[in-house]
Specification:
It holds the Pfam family Pentapeptide. It is a single chain. The protein has 4 helices and 2 strands, in the order ααββαα. The protein is an all-alpha fold and 235 residues long.
Length: 235
């Protein structure tokens, strides 16, 4: 059972009398808030007005809860788009995005799936790859320092020995990716996930990561003892 706690003047007594398990207002209920000189009638009307206001607040709260609980389900059911047929799609990484980075907004989808950027030392550095699709791509030995990857999907990609120095890797999905020997020196890892990723010999020197994200990352048993010490893993 949920209890609403409101601090608005005149509602404290009404809140104490009404606890919300579900909002069900009978269709025939009528609330009349007109003034009346009779004190008992006035009190009754005042209580009715307070209950009406409480009812409106409760309905609003439950509506917000309904929206927030259904949103993750929609996101979970989303599927990746078909592989782009653009013959130059792999070269899009050398241009990057030109619109907002933080929320993965892009002017044109960057589909880098199954592209090969092995040992590329010049074309990827500092690029914005917001919401890029990277699964199955190879970035082994590439210089990706200072890149901005917001909401990128890199499941199953290969980043062996990739340099992510000073990069911003925000909410990137590195699930099942091979990151052996990659460098995250002074890299922001906010909300990124590494489920079943290969993290042997990864450098985490001065990596910027939140406490909750750190706890999830430290669960990965492929992280070497030296890397765990750099991160501050306790388990």
């Amino acid at each position: 059972m949920a209890t609403l706690s409101l601090s608005s003047p005149g509602l404290s007594s009404a809140v104490n009398r009404h606890r919300v398990a579900a909002v069900h207002i009978h269709p025939s209920l009528r609330v009349n808030c007109s003034a009346n000189t009779n004190s008992s009638v006035s009190t009754s009307k005042e209580n009715s007005c307070q209950f009406k206001e409480l009812k409106n607040v409760a309905c609003g709260v439950l509506a917000v809860l309904a929206l927030t609980t259904t949103s993750p389900v929609i996101a979970a059911n989303q599927r990746l788009p078909p592989l782009s047929t653009d013959p130059d799609r792999c070269a899009r990484a050398f241009v990057g995005n030109t619109i907002g980075q933080a929320n993965g907004v892009y002017d044109k989808a960057i589909d880098l799936r199954f592209c090969d950027y092995t040992n590329d030392k010049t074309n990827l550095k500092g690029k914005s790859l917001a919401a890029a699709l990277m699964s199955g791509a190879k970035f082994d030995g590439a210089d990706m320092s200072e890149v901005v990857m917001s909401k990128a999907y890199a499941v199953g990609a290969s980043f062996k020995g990739t340099d992510f120095t000073n990069a911003v890797l925000d909410r990137v999905n590195f699930g099942k990716a091979n990151l052996q020997g990659a460098s995250f020196k002074n890299t922001v890892l906010s909300g990124s996930t590494f489920e079943e990723a290969q993290l042997q010999d990864v450098v985490f020197e001065d990596t910027i990561i939140g406490y909750i994200d750190l706890q999830k990352l430290c669960v990965n048993k492929t992280i070497s003892e030296d890397s765990r010490a750099e991160l501050g893993c306790r388990n």
